[in-house]
Design a protein that fits this description.
mainly beta, 4-stranded mixed sheet, 1 helix, 31% strand, globular
Length: 121
């Protein structure tokens, strides 16, 4: 089992294959060098702590046809923009759109955010 963990720790890029629907809790937690993640159209659920303690992640690409999630400027949100799921990478400030009605972030990655601005409709 130790070899598997060592191999996982050196991965820098993960492309989740089409057909995967759930990214489970702590999926990428031990991937110390992970920088890029690509999620397919089929993903409908991101369980909590998917990127737990992964400050190294700089890019999450979500397939254009994904009907549940979108990624933009280090934020993963619902496609309709009403739920915010994850903030990743090195983010100093964030603006939350007025249509966001739910923050579904259970535990933030060690963020260094110094400014949060929530737009009002």
């Amino acid at each position: 089992m130790r070899r598997l963990i060592v191999m996982v720790e050196i991965l820098q890029k993960i492309v989740v294959p089409e057909g995967v629907k759930v990214i489970g809790q702590n999926t990428f937690a031990h991937m110390k060098n992970l920088k890029r993640v690509s999620l397919p159209q089929s993903v409908t659920t991101l369980e909590h702590n998917v990127f737990y303690k992964r400050q190294s992640v700089t890019k999450v690409n979500i397939a254009a046809g994904n009907k549940t999630f979108k990624a933009k400027k280090n934020v993963i949100s619902s496609k309709n923009g009403k739920s915010l799921y994850l903030i990743y990478g090195k983010v100093k400030s964030i603006t939350i759109d007025a249509k966001v009605r739910q923050l579904s972030i259970r535990r933030a990655i060690k963020l260094q955010i110094t400014s949060v601005r929530w737009l009002v409709a």
